[in-house]
Structure formats: structure tokens, C-alpha cells
Specification:
The structure holds 2 protein chains of 2 kinds.
Chain A: H1 3-8, H2 11-37, H3 41-61, H4 65-90, H5 105-126, H6 143-152, H7 156-177, H8 188-197, E1 220-221, E2 227-228, H9 234-238, H10 254-260, H11 285-297
Antiparallel strand pairs in A: 1-2
Helix pairs in contact in A: 2-3, 3-4
Chain B: H1 3-23, H2 27-52, H3 56-86
Helix pairs in contact in B: 1-2, 2-3
The chains are: A mainly alpha, B mainly alpha.
């Protein structure tokens, strides 16, 4: 197919390489387009991971196994995890507004991108890109030994400067991410005082897990059958995490939920009052106990 | 595959990353597109190293990776600091120095 492959000697290996190249080229370019077009940041991170991994395979095929492993470890392992970590801190579900703030910016950007590709490929056509040389290694030693020799002889000063850069970056990240405490730290005594003063020294009632649904967003039932709102974590209420995207509160009336108890392999739904002590029906004794405990606390 | 195929692929990836930097508003995604551009440059470096038959290109690509990692660390820390004060990661909102 081309001189590089002919020099490789083996036609089968050359075919394999070219098949892998074309498949991964399509995958990486498609993932790059997806990364630009995806609306949610997490999807962009997944696309970026696909690009990084296919680039690692490219490095392997190009005779750079060290760079391939560094790519997987540093980029896919560390940098992408850092991206995801910051994304989780900032808010995963935040969507970007699709309104163009500058009119015609997207069209102009697309045209500029295509122009850049055309320009660079034209320049590439004029440049003298020769076939791949047979041996990549320096003086017959392996890839890793050759890179180590180069780093610690020719490039030793940039390498040392890199260490200074990394230390500076770590310090800068610590300084930037550090937050000064503006109020004195609460001691255990302060917390106890605040708790007694709040009028509720006991713990909050546990939610109705296992009583009606296998989920923490179900409120516990009070002895009179009404749901106890304080038994659901305020975080769930604030983020409106319900079973189907609806707010966790107010819940459905308790009657149909009692019928749902059959789903958990429990016993007969029965007509017993929620919160009443279980009459000793084998399977579902534990769930109802949980419900009654939650109700009694509130 | 000949090195020119790899260089062409890296050109395409670089341009897509550049378009992403121009188009996207979320600063995290802008960072990701910058990472894509750096990776495309690395691919070209490795292809040229193979073409010339020495390892200098791979060493340069290695340095690019190290610098990119440092850049991501500092950039994401700045992003978090901005988000903490302005509750937004859009690059349009950080325009306090504009006027």
C-alpha cells in the first residue's frame, strides 16, 4: 500500500495496522465531533476518554510504547479523573445554554476550522513527508532505554525545569482551591447546645426505606398515616430527586403504596394500619417495623 | 500506515479542538478541547519521530504531556475559584475586567 508498509516486510501485519488505523481514526474523529457537539459536560468527558484511548493505540502502532502507556496513565487516568472530579463539584447536571451570544459565531468557527484543515493539509502536501524509517530506537536499544538516555542527557535541563513547573502547579492549585475559614470552628459543645436549643434533641426519624419502597426518598409514615416530611433527607428534597424525576415530597397517598409492598417479596398487603405493630406476618415483619419506628420518632 | 496519514489525522483533530474552543461556553469543555488540541500535536510529534527514525519527537511529546497535566491542574483550580465566587462556569460570565 505504501513504502512504509513494504519496508515492514509482513503484508499481514501491514493490513492489520491499516485496518486498526482506519477504524480508530473514524472513532477518534467521531468522538471529537461528539465532544464539540455534546450538550452535557459528562458526555464530553466520555468522548474525550475514547479519543485518548485511541490515541494510545496510535502511539503503540507508531513505535512509541512508552508514550502509549503514559497516555493511558496520565491522560485517561489522572487528567480525565480530575476533569470528572471538578465536574462533580461544580454540578454534573448543569446544561449549557444554546443561545449564541455573538451572532453567527458558530458558522464562523466552523468555517475557520475547515479553512485551517484545508490550509494545513495543503501545507502537508507540499512538505516532504517521507516514509517511516525502519528503526525508531536510538542505536539499536529499545524505546524506553532510548527515551531515558535522551531525557537524561540532551534534555536534562528541560526535564529539571519540568519538575519545577510541576511543583509550582501543585502549589498553585493548593492556593487556589484553599478556602479561608471565616467563622470559628464549632466545637462539640457548641453543637450539643445548638441541638438542645433547636427543640429537637433526638435524631431525625429514618425514612421509610423497606416499609413501602426500596428507596430513601420515601417519607416514613406517622402513626396517624400521614407522611413525615422530616424523615426525608433535605438534600433529596432540595435536588428534587424523586423516583421519576418528580419532587420527593409530597408523596403518594399511603394506600396504594401498601399494595406495592408485594413487589418486595413481602407477604400480603393486608389492611393493617401503617405504623401499627406488625401482627407477625413472616416476610414483611421487618419492613413494617421500620415504618413504625420512623413514625414513632416523629 | 505512512506518517502523512497520522499527520493528517492530527490536523483534523487539532481543527476540531480549535472549533470546540471557539464554540463552547462551558469552561470545562473548553479545557477539554484544549487537551484535544495538545493530544493532536502529540500525535504529529510521534509521527514525525517515526519518520525521522529518532526519539526526539517522542521526548517532546512526553514534555507536552507533562506541561498539559500541570496546565489542567492550575486551570481547573482557577475554574473552581471562579465558580465559588460567581456560581457559574460560563466563559461569558467572567467579564468583570471588560469595562
Amino acid at each position: 500500500m505504501n513504502p512504509a508498509l513494504a519496508s515492514a516486510g509482513s503484508t499481514a501485519a501491514a493490513t492489520t495496522q491499516s485496518v486498526v488505523f482506519w477504524v480508530l481514526a473514524v472513532v477518534s474523529v467521531g468522538s471529537a465531533c461528539g465532544m464539540v457537539l455534546a450538550r452535557r459536560a459528562v458526555h464530553c468527558a466520555v468522548y474525550l476518554a475514547a479519543i485518548m484511548l485511541s490515541l494510545a493505540v496510535f502511539y503503540l502502532m507508531e513505535g512509541a510504547p512508552f508514550l502509549a502507556f503514559v497516555q493511558v496513565i496520565v491522560y485517561t487516568g489522572a487528567v480525565l479523573m480530575l476533569f470528572l472530579f471538578v465536574m462533580m463539584l461544580i454540578g454534573v447536571s448543569s446544561r449549557e445554554s444554546l443561545v449564541e451570544t455573538i451572532r453567527g459565531q458558530r458558522l464562523a468557527a466552523a468555517i475557520a476550522g475547515i479553512a485551517l484543515v484545508v490550509l494545513l493539509i495543503l501545507a502537508l502536501g507540499h512538505a516532504a513527508i517521507g516514509p517511516a524509517t525502519q528503526s525508531v530506537a536510538n542505536g539499536g536499544v529499545g524505546n524506553l532505554t532510548g527515551i531515558a538516555t535522551l531525557i537524561f542527557t540532551t534534555y536534562v535541563f528541560p526535564f529539571e525545569a519540568t519538575s519545577a513547573l510541576l511543583i509550582t502547579a501543585a502549589l498553585g492549585a493548593m492556593v487556589l482551591a484553599h478556602r479561608e475559614r471565616t467563622s470559628p470552628k464549632l466545637t462539640q459543645r457548641d453543637l450539643a447546645k445548638r441541638r438542645v436549643a433547636s427543640g429537637r434533641p433526638t435524631p431525625l426519624p429514618s425514612p421509610g426505606v423497606f416499609a413501602l419502597h426500596n428507596a430513601v426518598d420515601m417519607p416514613a409514615l406517622l402513626p396517624d398515616g400521614s407522611p413525615s416530611e422530616i424523615s426525608v433527607s433535605s438534600m433529596l428534597v432540595r435536588r428534587e430527586i424523586g423516583g421519576d424525576g418528580t419532587p420527593a415530597l409530597p408523596p403518594a397517598p399511603p394506600e396504594p403504596e401498601l399494595a406495592d409492598r408485594e413487589d418486595q417479596g413481602g407477604a400480603e398487603p393486608g389492611s393493617q394500619e401503617p405504623g401499627a405493630p406488625p401482627p407477625g406476618d413472616g416476610g414483611s415483619g421487618q419492613p413494617v417495623e421500620a415504618s413504625s419506628k420512623g413514625g414513632a420518632d416523629s | 500506515m505512512s506518517p502523512s496519514a497520522y499527520v493528517t489525522l492530527s490536523i483534523i483533530l487539532f481543527a476540531i479542538g480549535g472549533v470546540g474552543v471557539l464554540v463552547r461556553r462551558n469552561a470545562i469543555i473548553v479545557f477539554m478541547c484544549i487537551e484535544l488540541m495538545l493530544n493532536a500535536a502529540n500525535l504529529a510529534f510521534v509521527a514525525f519521530a517515526r519518520m525521522h527514525g529518532n526519539l526526539d519527537g517522542q521526548v517532546i511529546a512526553f514534555f507536552v504531556m507533562v506541561v498539559a497535566a500541570a496546565e489542567v491542574v492550575v486551570g481547573l483550580a482557577i475554574l473552581m475559584a471562579i465558580f465559588r465566587t460567581r456560581r457559574s462556569t460560563s466563559v461569558d460570565d467572567a467579564s468583570l475586567l471588560k469595562n
